[in-house]
Every structure is written in structure tokens, then in C-alpha cells.
Design brief:
Elements: H1 4-10, E1 15-18, E2 27-30, E3 34-37, E4 40-45, E5 50-53, E6 61-66, E7 69-74, E8 77-79, E9 98-103, E10 109-111, E11 114-116, E12 123-126, E13 132-134, E14 137-139, E15 146-149, E16 156-158, E17 161-163, E18 175-178, E19 215-217, E20 220-222, E21 229-232, E22 238-240, E23 243-245, E24 252-259, E25 262-264, E26 267-269, H2 279-285, E27 304-310, E28 313-315, E29 318-320, E30 327-334, E31 337-339, E32 342-344, E33 359-361, E34 383-385, E35 388-390, E36 395-399, E37 407-409, E38 412-413, E39 419-423, E40 430-432, E41 435-436, E42 440-441, E43 447-448
Parallel strand pairs: 1-4, 2-5, 3-6, 4-7, 5-8, 6-9, 7-10, 8-11, 9-12, 10-13, 11-14, 12-15, 13-16, 14-17, 15-18, 16-19, 17-20, 18-21, 19-22, 20-23, 21-24, 22-25, 23-26, 24-27, 25-28, 26-29, 27-30, 28-31, 29-32, 30-33, 31-34, 32-35, 33-36, 34-37, 35-38, 36-39, 37-40, 38-41
Antiparallel strand pairs: 42-43
Amino acid sequence: TSNASEIFNAAADNTHLVLRPSRPDLVLHSPAALVLRNKENLVIDFNNVTIMFGEPTNERHMLRVEHSRSVTLMNAHFSFPNIPEPGFYQQHGDNKTGLLLVFDSDLVAIKANTMTNSPQASIAISHSRKAWIGDNTILNSGAGGIILHGDTKECVVEGNHVVDSIGVANWHAGIVLSYRQVDLRDGVALLLGKHLHHDSAFSLLHRKQYPSRNAIVRNYVGHSSGQGIYVDGAVGNVIMGNEIHASSKEGLCLDGGATSNVVMDNHIHECGQRTKQEDYVLKQEVPDQRTGEDGLTIYKLPGVSVDNGLYNILLRNNVRNNFGGGIKLVRTSFFNLVVDNSLWNNNKGGSEHLSFPAVSLMNDPSDDHGATDLDYAPSVGNMIAYNTMRGGHGLGVLIASGSVCNEIFFNNINETKYFGIESLVEQTNFVQCNDPEKNSRSPQNKIDAGWPMYGHPGLRNVA
């Protein structure tokens, strides 16, 4: 056959269908969407056949698995003919075609496929359970490489190679977990709403379903125009053993009320330079248009950020050679643990204007338009402990105004440009038994011996 639809029409329950191509470079064309609905115990092994999709305007996903159980799709090359144009799908009307949607299904496996040039997301898993997304190669996704959405639980995303995701919004990251209450059958672009960041139309006050108990493990995510991995309001997931490389924005961002996620043993490097950020995006994200020696904005981004997140654990991550700092608790970051991480030279984007710390506890102002449902608060009650910070950071730890009741102890801080720890807050944080190579500074500009630090309003030793 030369028509991929005939393969899907032939697929029945309890079938293991293996394609036997007449030649190794066989390409099957699919002008219409391929749909598996109400299927059970079905395996389709495409045996490295290429399925080439067109770009119709009336299809939201070219391949759909709906209301099914125990379905496996493997060893295919799914492709669109052209690389998506760089850009930012801001309006609902700009709802281009995505590649694969799994909706309301159990035990679906998407295994060892190659997916290229999807105008929207390559793989979207919505309201599904126990899916396995493994060993896929995903190139040039227009708006998200792999998305776990809504009430998606107990899924594993493992061993995938996600490269060159093109969209620049948060929901266009290489891997996305999002709670946003939309129906992805009507298109992945609905996740974005009307703004680049938070939209009050997707209020956390009404969050009822969210990705939970999923594992994102041993993936490579590289050269994304946005973040490498973006966690939006997801709860209780494990992100472990991934390599995130050269994302234009943060390597990994916990946002939108992300709660009780475990981020451990990841290698996050060379992220945050903003190399692929267009002017209309920067106008929403940075306070002015100053540029550095690289010709790009001076406002770089960290390897890891926590922005509106609580009770998350960041453990044993290797965060190095990022441009705008190592780990940044941006705002409304409550009771997170940042423990035993290795932070090295995360000031690659430092300049005469700005120098970036290894770890920062911030109270950044909101850049989210119309977000009336959120209270933007400082970073409170976090524990920063047993981390190693080396290699030319501006500071080891920065404590911004309003960030209080944080515990900072037993960190090894060396080779900083200015101070080991700098506090800009008058209220009490608990800082003890750190080992900074250089002295530290309080709001009164008082310089204390580096180890240990003794009491004044900003820095108090509770030993």
C-alpha cells in the first residue's frame, strides 16, 4: 500500500501487525488523520517505514489514540515535510497541526519512533494512565516535544532524544507537564492562552486535575528555544537522570504551583543564554534592551528555576556552565529542599552589568500579565544545604528582600567574584556552618568571617 490509512483500517483488537516494506526507504503518505479508537491489545510495528503527513488546517493531530488500552506503536518515522517556522503561537487561532495525541487511554506504549517537523507538539498524552514513552527521537517540534497533560498518571518518559524544539513559550519546552484545563483534542495551542506566561483563565484556584506520579528519566533534551523541561502545576512527579543541554531559557523550570516533585541526578548545562529569543518575547520578559558582549540581552536565565512552587526536592543535580545562575527560587517558592547539588561556573552570562549567583532566594516582581489570581511573595522556608558551589559565580548564595525563614547551612562555597553569601533582607534567616572562601555581607554592609556566620538581623547563627 502507499496509503497509511489502510494500515490503521486493518488493525483490529488482539493484533500484532508488522509491516514488511517492499524497499528500505518506503514512504507512506497520510493526507488525513490516522485514528485508533476503542482498541485493545494491539501492536503496530512499522519496521522503520516513514509515514509522511501533509499539513491540513482542519486536523489538530495527525495520529490519535483514544479510549484504548494496551496499544503499542513502534519503529516508525513520522514526519511532516517542512521544519516549522520559528515563532510563538500566541493566539488560539494559530492552532496548527500536531503529530500524536493519546487521550483517555491506558497502557499505551510509544516506542523507538522518530518524529520530525511537527508544527505543534510531537507527542501529547492527555488524561491517560500508565503510558510508556521510550527511546523515541524527536526533532524540530514547533510547540513541545513531549507533553503530559491533565489527569495523566503513572506514565514513564524514558530514554528519549528531544532536540531543537522550536517554540519559545514555556509550554513549548522539550518536555512539558501541565495542569491547564483545556481539551487537547481541540489542539495543543490551547495550553498557551493569551499570554506568554501565566493566564488567569487557567487559575490555580480551580486546578482539579494535574499530572502526578509520572517519571521523567534518562532523557536527553537539547537546544530548545524555550526550556528543556517545564513543570506547570504538576504534583508528585520524579525527574531523574536527564541531560538538559543548551536550552535558550532555563534547563528546568518548576512553575505554576508545582508541588512535591523530586528533581534528582540530572545534568543541566549551558542553558539560559537566550540565544533564540526574539524581540517581541524579550519585551515581555526583560526590563530593558541592554545587550552584552554576545550581542544578546544581559538578562540571562539560570540552569534551574522554581517559580511558584513548594515542597519540591532538588537533590544531587549537576548544574554547571549555565549563563544566568545555577538554581534560582524566583518568587513564591515555599519549603523547597535544595540539597547536595554540584554548582559550577553558572555565571557564563555575567557582565559589567550583572553577575549571577550559584543559588538565589528571590522576590522578583511579576512579569505575568493579568495574573490577578496569584499572590507574588518572597521565597520562604526553603532549605539550602550541603551544596558545592565553585567556578566563578558572582555570589554563592543571594538572599533577596523579603525572603525569610530560610535555612542555609553546610554549603561549600569557593571562587566567588564578590561574597560567599549576601543577604539583602533585614529579617531573620538561619545561616550556619557554611564554608565560604570569601566573607559574606549583610544589609548593614557588615562583613563577617566566612565560617561560621554570627548574628545580626540578616544572618543569624542558631548553633
